[in-house]
């Protein structure tokens, strides 16, 4: 009985219930609607010293364990860290900034001189991300790009820095139905090179089935993929899947 209670406890949090209730709205605005995104920024600004990157990341995680945030989280964040460290990218892109958490983690482990382009559709989230990065002292390592890869103007802007196979690493963590189309945009735009790595979050929960099917069908021909079994961010009982895929060209 104790084990059952422990498993359902995360779903009884008011913050979890609010997230589930507002899910249809969230998938349009990419903010839960109860102010948690602004609240985590406020907490970071009030309780951490400027330039203390580790403290900023820890504070976001602490907030996320109480009021669920939809960033990659601490458990899966370690998978992202490890993939970046293996790849040693010079140029990286992430699709979906949210409150800047994954950008902060990336900035912490990227090689000296590397740069991240963080693409975010929602202006409010992009602004929060910029303030998080500046407060943590890594604003010079990350360019926050307002837009989406479904917008030709955004692709054109990024093409100036990524064309000719200059993209070494991509992290995908935004609208799940956009995973595969946006990957195809990166391939079609000639941004990737043999050895480029793409990490995709939430492939099982809430799920990106088309992306998963694509990577499994392409295994050994155009991609090599490691499937990491893990859990949904800040919940711990829901199974999730992170894909780490290496482009074969």
Features:
249 residues, alpha/beta, Rossmann fold, seven-stranded mixed sheet, 12 helices, 49% helix, 20% strand, globular, disordered N terminus
Written description of the protein model:
The chain has a seven-stranded mixed β-sheet, with helices on both faces. The chain is 49% helix and 20% strand. By secondary structure, it is α/β, with parallel strands linked by helices. α6 (73-87) packs parallel to α7 (101-109). The protein has one domain (70-247): Rossmann fold (3-Layer(aba) Sandwich). α8 links the parallel β2 and β3 (142-146). The protein has helices spanning 2-8, 14-21, 23-29, 36-47, 53-66, 73-87, 101-109, 123-136, 152-162, 179-188, 203-207, 209-217, and strands at 91-95, 115-120, 142-146, 167-172, 192-200, 223-231, 239-247. The chain is built from twelve helices and seven strands.
